[in-house]
Amino acid sequence: MQPRDPMPMSAATAAVTDVYLFGTCVIDLFMPRAGLDAVRLLEREGVVVHYPRGQSCCGQPAWSSGNPAHAREVALAQMALFPHDWPVIVPSGSCAGMMRHHWPELFAADPVLAEQARRLAGRVHELSEFLLNVLRVRYPAQAQADEDVVLHTSCGARREMGTRAHCVALVDGLPGVRRLEHARESECCGFGGTFCLKHPDISGAMVTDKVAAACATGARRVVSADCGCLLNIGHAARAQEAPLEVEHMASFLWRRANGLAAGEEGA
């Protein structure tokens, strides 16, 4: 499957002063630090970040499970939370893909809601592409140890959002960081939302292969822009007693940009 063509972005991104953050349910429940670090990265560039209360899920679990009615209900509850014409930043390639590409599909039968979904979809940015393309960030060298890392790109980020190149550019632009590659780079980790629950044996085999390939590079850290994948890879690494840590892209960028060691949060 080839990456989708990028959707034209709103003109509001020309001079960004304010953005919304859609934190995602996985970050909210399991990796809140990734959300906080996403805010810190944006504020570091002088952007005011607004986090609407009441946000929950993008609807992807229901959509990928063949339940569009429930996905519409969930998506509709989120759409009302972003009334201003500001970019909506999503620290997840899979959730951003759902919002940008599938929300308009969900409401295709209702012209009014379809137009609302289309307009909102045009303001959705995955965090990495926004940092690179809009804010054009550069992170200077800091006094910290060199690191070897493996970059994992989720299926949604790679094939729907086309943001692997953005993540590669950000990681490769960090002084003291060496990105190592392996033969299973383009393979799914086996998470797939509800896939890992419905097909645990298949999912387990997929992530076992992914962990083994990452470890074979000699790197001891997997960085990804998707928390679902990190949860899956991290759990498998612990189960296998593999010497592999996982870290969200936002947290990794924030840490390296501020000269922090692994585990340090900074101000």
TrEMBL record:
Q: Where is the Cysteine-rich domain?
A: 20-100, 149-233
InterPro entries (alphabetical):
Cys_rich_dom (IPR004017)
Q: Name one GO molecular function term.
A: oxidoreductase activity
Q: Which Pfam families match?
A: CCG (PF02754)
| GO cellular component entries | cytosol
Instruction: Write down the PANTHER family for this protein, in alphabetical order.
Output: LACTATE UTILIZATION PROTEIN A, UNCHARACTERIZED PROTEIN YKGE
Would you tell me the protein name for this molecule?
(Fe-S)-binding protein
Classification from the root reads: Bacteria, Pseudomonadati, Pseudomonadota, Betaproteobacteria, Burkholderiales
